Amino acid sequence: MLGIYLNVILSSLAVLALAVGISFYFTERDAGYIRGYTFLYGLAVFLTCGGYSVMGFMPNLKYAFIPRLFGLYGIDVFLLIELSFLTKELKRRQGLRAVIIGFFALYILLDLLIFGKPDTLNYIRYDFHTAYENVGGGAFFFHYAYMMLICVVLLVHGIQWFKSKKVRRDKQFVLEIIVANFVLLLAAFPDMVRAAFAVKYPTFPYCAAVSVVYFSYYFAVKQHILFMPTVKNVSREIFHSVDVPVIIFDMDGKVTLYNSCAKTKLMIADVSRENSPLSLRSLFTLTDVETLRLLVKVRKGAGGQFETKIKTTGKECSLSIAVQFDKAFEPFCIIGFP
């Protein structure tokens, strides 16, 4: 039964990695080429964990090599993507990048042809799980020679990448990614020496390791891009430093965001202690009818200017309203400038 549970875990990791990669690609539009690499990493993990989990579930030993081929391809490509990422970060010349990546891409092709053949491994069916037995020989060593060689190359490039960074935060980001690679080597070791667990479940350790490396990379990148000079990050600073009160309301008139100037001018701290949640009615002396008319107007996409008073100070003010639209040109928030 353990084999079923392990394969369910691998299937879940496969789907999660792909979902995370796709989500990152579509939500982090300011992340540059990191978007594409994060998606490709997720796709490689999906192929690795998905391929080997399907192999584990497959009762027909004759065709077990097919999903296993996808898993093998996922591992090989995962390491190649990382090499491409490192050479990109180091700004290697295009010609040199092409030579390095081309060499390992050719190695991957040969690895699939040599180590991915149906008769390279002996497939074994346990009660609830399909595994394989490494028979050694040239194909076995050819595959692990690739893993060892590319990991050494990744380590060399990783050290150079680390040395090129001057800011401590950037160095920490690089170090997290470099250290994660050693998880792969440690996970592959039991399969190489045919440890007891790896004999019956040979694919689980390095499938789990690939997932650990990917999610370590993902969280390191998510943390790193918080400090990248993107539109999102810079806009946040501008929003809070501009000397004009700005308040963001949802389409029901509830306050969702405000800047420092609005907090001071409207004495929002005092209002928030008395009323929860903050709204148009709690900040300004608008009647229920006036508030309803305003909301009906903005839900149709129309802004405008309204004469009212600040509730905490009693001072008269002009509340300028602008409506923000989404990509479907539907209003989704109200921007107020008192």
Write the layout of secondary structure elements.
Layout: H1 2-27, H2 33-57, H3 65-89, H4 94-114, E1 121-125, E2 130-134, H5 137-164, H6 168-193, H7 196-200, H8 204-224, H9 231-241, E3 247-249, E4 255-258, H10 260-265, H11 268-274, H12 280-283, H13 288-299, E5 304-309, E6 316-325, E7 331-337
Antiparallel strand pairs: 1-2, 3-4, 3-7, 5-6, 6-7
Brief summary of the model shown:
This protein is α+β, with helices and mostly antiparallel strands and 338 residues long. The protein has 13 helices and seven strands.
- Placed side by side, the strands forming the largest sheet appear as 4-3-7-6-5
Q: List the uncertain runs.
A: none
Task: Give the overall average pLDDT.
Answer: 82
Largest sheet, in brief, is: 5 strands, antiparallel
Molecular shape: elongated
Estimated helix fraction: 55-70%
Q: Span from first to last CA?
A: 65 Å
Listing every helix as H and every strand as E from the N terminus to the C terminus, the arrangement reads HHHHEEHHHHHEEHHHHEEE
What would you call the quaternary organization?
single chain
What does this structure look like?
The protein has helices at 2-27, 33-57, 65-89, 94-114, 137-164, 168-193, 196-200, 204-224, 231-241, 260-265, 268-274, 280-283, 288-299, and strands spanning 121-125, 130-134, 247-249, 255-258, 304-309, 316-325, 331-337. It has 338 residues and is α+β, with helices and mostly antiparallel strands. It has a five-stranded antiparallel sheet. A hairpin with a 4-residue loop joins strand 1 (121-125) and strand 2. Helix 5 (137-164) runs antiparallel to helix 6 (168-193) and helix 6 runs antiparallel to helix 8. The longest helix has 28 residues, at 137-164. It starts with a helix and ends with a strand. The mean pLDDT is 82.
